[in-house]
Write a structure and sequence with these properties.
Chain lengths: ~240, ~475
């Protein structure tokens, strides 16, 4: 892959990751669009959304349908990657390691002006890992509490009734936290960040420029160079 | 009766010189000419033993009560202004066949000042004028009296009309209906005088009747007659009538149920009452038909306080059902309005403060699943989406007429009851299920501590995380440009 100025393109994501991410965007947006008006139901804009989508019952139906897709996506992600990493020798590149702690410490020093070198990160930066695990754990919380709210009668056969209001509290608060985290950090990191502005397209196209690769993921870039092939698809890509 | 005195003649000359109508010349002479003339007439007409005889033997008293005359609307006129043939010096002897003929002739004098087109504007006069054309005589003094004339409605004219009607209606008689039922036509004058209608006359309500007209209206039954009376009330109380036209009782009537109540069934007939402040009476009026509801209400926390302590704060029938536009309780609109009805009192801190009750009940309801859903249903234009399903409202858990006190009741019993109520919409609800509802409490360390701690955790975490991230973003941008 050749681009003007000699900036080669390296394949970073296979179609599996691209489709998975696209599916997550769509489902996340539908869940947010049908969930937030329920939390802030007294606002005029929420009521407009509710009316446009055919009333609160239809809105809940849409929320439940997209929740089912979300549960499917989350289950698929966990199972496929667990099997891949455990039995198929995929690189566990999302696992948090000591290196991430060191990188974050290095970056604190960098921000404070104590060093001129930012942390040299591997395939995923400690920031990307942070948001990944935050969203993954949050999703498990959302799925469990969401199911309690969806089937309160069934759950209260085995659990005390208080778990219903507790689930509601966790579900709505955690949703806000994840939503705010995604719209602030993820949007900044992959779109507004001066390094990638206007957008880091690698998760959509599957390719990343070598310069950007070197700047954003210097360690992985070095590994690929050592192996002698920029075209070689990285080992964590299962498809 | 003829008298002649020098002083009177002088006064008369003076009065004629000033003008024919004394009333407009007041304050001209030292003593008002009218007063002088009237006093001269009263020298004889102030005696209450004199009468005038008519050809048929009937008589009329010639006595004039000067004090009553002074209070009448004609107080500023002289005797001569109406009795124009008579002056101090001239008192012609006239003969009449009867008292009736005399009064008919005298009534013509009234109409010199009160022309037909002016008096004809009132329906009662219009009817009389129409009758006059067909040969019946109009006698103004029948209603307005002779020397104490006043406007109808100001009291005495109505009294005079009432007197006319009571001539017959103070006797025990009955009106028969086609089906054989009867109703007493006896009217106790005190009933009206003690009612808000004390200043209006019989024909103001019974408008197709007058001293000259008494139609024999025929009704199939007593109920039919009662319902026809609503038309009388409508003439003045149109606002109430319009509400009644939309209510459930009227819908029953339209369906042929003559037992449906009408105005007089609640408000009474001649002893009419607005019932406004008498809350106990209102409940008893409804109880006349709604006996089972009444007995359930008597056992409720509201009814108990009303009957035992005459508590004026507790809800009575009309507070929830309204007094005139009561709707069918089976309608979804009525059901969905219930939280509003309860909140009229239960979110009023002044009323609730007296009894140590929380005003949070409505807010906590509205912020939870049922209240939120219901408030959204009510905003939806359900023409587009079809009627929404019923959502649990206050009465679905607390009951309707037999609402019981919550504090101090047996918690175990209450939970079993509540579980049954939950299960009616949530089939299979277990005994844990009602605990999903925090019983109108806001989470705190005492109530639902787990929920409270979670709430506080996120209340701190959310702003802290977002502020931290925004700080990091700014730091990142700043460092990027600094290191370039």
């Amino acid at each position: 892959m050749e681009e003007k100025g000699g900036n080669q393109h390296i394949r970073r994501f296979g179609p599996y990751r691209i489709v998975e991410h696209l599916a997550l965007i769509v489902i996340f947006l539908v869940l947010a669009m049908t969930g937030l008006p329920q939390k802030f139901y007294h606002l005029g804009i929420s009521q407009s959304v509710i009316v446009i989508l055919g009333g609160i019952d239809n809105l809940r139906l849409l929320h439940h349908l997209s929740a089912m897709l979300f549960i499917g996506l989350a289950a698929e992600h966990v199972i496929v990657n667990f099997v891949g990493v455990t039995f198929m020798d995929w690189e566990p590149s999302m696992l948090v390691t000591l290196k991430d702690a060191q990188d974050s410490f290095q970056n604190v020093r960098y921000y404070l002006g104590l060093t001129h070198e930012p942390a040299g990160c591997g395939r995923y930066t400690y920031k990307e890992k942070g948001i990944y695990w935050f969203v993954l754990i949050g999703s498990v919380q959302m799925i469990i509490t969401g199911l309690v709210l969806w089937f309160p009668v069934a759950f209260t056969r085995y659990l005390p009734g208080i778990f219903v209001p507790l689930s509601k509290m966790v579900h709505t608060s955690e949703a806000m936290l994840i939503f705010m985290l995604v719209v602030t950090w993820h949007i900044y990191d992959s779109m507004l960040n001066p390094d990638v502005f206007p957008i880091n397209k690698s998760i959509f196209t599957g390719y990343i420029g070598t310069r950007q690769m070197k700047r954003l993921h210097p360690m992985e870039s070095a590994t690929l160079r050592e192996e002698g092939s920029a075209d070689q698809v990285d080992r964590s890509i299962p498809v | 009766m003829k008298r002649s005195k020098g002083i009177v003649a002088a006064a008369l000359v003076l009065s004629l010189a000033i003008g024919p109508a004394c009333g407009v010349n007041q304050g001209f002479a030292q003593e008002e000419p009218c007063a002088v003339l009237n006093r001269e007439c009263l020298a004889c007409h102030g005696r209450d033993d004199a009468v005038k005889k008519f050809a048929d033997g009937s008589v009329v008293k010639t006595y004039i009560d000067s004090q009553s005359f002074a209070k009448s609307v004609h107080a500023s006129l002289s005797c001569h202004d109406c009795h124009q043939d008579f002056t101090v010096t001239s008192h012609p002897e006239r003969s009449f066949r009867s008292r009736l003929q005399y009064r008919t002739v005298e009534s013509r004098r009234c109409r010199q000042c009160h022309p037909d087109d002016v008096i004809g504007a009132r329906s009662i006069h219009e009817t009389l004028l129409r009758k006059e054309k067909s040969g019946e005589a109009i006698i103004c003094t029948n209603c307005h009296s002779a020397h104490m004339m006043s406007r109808v409605g100001a009291g005495s004219a109505a009294k005079s009309e009432t007197k006319h009607c009571l001539a017959c209606h103070s006797r025990e008689k009955v009106k028969k209906f086609v089906n054989g039922e009867t109703v007493s036509t006896f009217v106790t004058p005190g009933d009206i005088l003690n009612s808000p209608h004390k200043d209006i006359g019989c024909t103001d309500c019974h408008s197709d009747f007058s001293s000259a007209r008494h139609p024999d209206n025929r009704y199939g039954s007593e109920r039919e007659y009662r319902h026809s009376s609503a038309g009388m009330c409508r003439r003045c109380h149109y606002d109430k009538y319009a509400m009644v036209a939309e209510n459930i009782h009227n819908a029953m009537l339209s369906a042929g149920r003559l037992d449906a109540p009408t105005c007089v069934d609640c408000h009474g007939t001649h002893s009419i009452s607005s019932l406004g402040n008498d809350r106990l009476s209102i409940v008893r009026k409804c109880a006349a038909c709604h006996k089972e509801v009444y007995s359930a209400y008597s056992r409720s926390v509201h009814g108990g306080a009303l009957f035992n302590g005459n508590n004026r704060d507790v809800a009575i029938c009309t507070d929830c059902h309204t007094s005139h536009n009561m709707q069918a309780i089976s309608s979804i609109d009525f059901h969905d309005d219930i939280p509003d009805r309860c909140s009229n009192c239960h979110s009023n801190p002044v009323i609730m403060g007296k009894y140590g009750l929380s005003t949070d009940v409505v807010k906590t309801y509205l912020s939870d699943f049922h209240g939120m859903t219901l408030s959204l249903y009510r905003k939806e234009t359900w023409k587009h989406y079809g009627p929404p399903p019923a959502m649990a409202v206050c009465t679905d858990c607390h009951g309707t007429h037999d609402i019981a006190r919550v504090s101090g009741s047996d918690i175990g019993q209450m939970k079993i009851k509540l579980m049954k109520r939950c299960a009616s919409c949530h089939p299979g609800a277990s005994e844990n299920f009602p605990d999903a509802w925090l019983s109108h409490y806001r989470p705190s360390f005492g109530v639902a501590p787990m929920v409270f701690i979670t709430e506080q955790f996120y209340r701190i975490m959310l702003p802290l995380t977002i502020t931290g991230i925004l700080f990091l973003v700014l730091l990142d941008i700043w460092r990027y440009f600094r290191s370039r």
